[in-house]
Design a protein that fits this description.
The protein is 25% helix and 30% strand. The protein has 192 residues and is an alpha+beta fold. It has a single domain (55-189), classed as Mannitol-specific EII, Chain A. The chain has a 5-stranded mixed sheet. A hairpin with a 2-residue loop joins strand 1 (17-21) and strand 2. It is globular, with a radius of gyration of 16 Å.
Length: 192
């Protein structure tokens, strides 16, 4: 199936969700629930697939000095629609800021991915934030795109594959210069 435009061919609603699973990007319709295959995307890695990244889980213009603070800003977005676990968003955000949680982190070429196991989640959740000024990762390394991956268990996508896909020159440039959620969704749909 070819990648559709921004409107659902079935009901004409806006395709405002992106699901990154396997090696494909799919755009989804919130009205009728149908998904449409797109271009090659982020590798899913061992035992995990990327959750849906909808408009509520994407933040195109954030500011933070440190990676932990950047991730803390994404907690509520990742937990949006997660039921009772959403009530723990402030607690989780504060624990990330304090670096008191065990977080798997990978960073490369302007992208950082943090994976955190959260008890009580029914399914993996993710949020993506674009930090145009960058956030300090370590030393003089900065990340401009931060992905927070919350999972009910430690297994998940291969973080190195995610870094390669999002850190590719064109994709990273499109994400860094995205000034709205639609531009971020378009950049993700074109990730190879």
């Amino acid at each position: 199936m070819t990648a559709p435009g921004r409107r659902c061919p079935a009901c004409s609603a806006s395709l405002d969700r992106v699901r990154l699973s396997g090696s494909r990007v799919e755009r989804g319709c919130p009205a009728c629930g149908k998904w449409f295959s797109g271009e090659k995307a982020l590798p899913a890695g061992r035992g995990g697939r990327w959750p849906v990244l909808g408009k509520a889980s994407i933040a195109p213009d954030l500011r933070a000095d440190e990676l932990q603070a950047a991730a803390a800003q994404l907690v509520a977005r990742a937990l949006h629609g997660a039921g009772a676990v959403y009530a723990r968003r402030e607690e989780l955000a504060q624990a990330l800021r304090d670096a008191s949680l065990e977080v798997e982190t990978a960073a490369q070429r302007g992208v950082a991915v943090l994976r955190l196991v959260v008890e009580g989640l029914a399914e993996p959740r993710a949020a993506l934030g674009v930090f145009p000024q960058g956030v300090e990762v370590s030393g003089d390394e900065r990340a401009f795109v931060v992905v927070l991956w919350l999972a009910p268990e430690p297994q998940g996508p291969d973080l190195a594959g995610v870094l390669r896909a999002l850190g590719a020159g064109k994709t990273l440039h499109l994400l860094r210069t995205a000034d709205n959620v639609e531009a971020v969704l378009d950049a993700l749909a074109g990730a190879a």
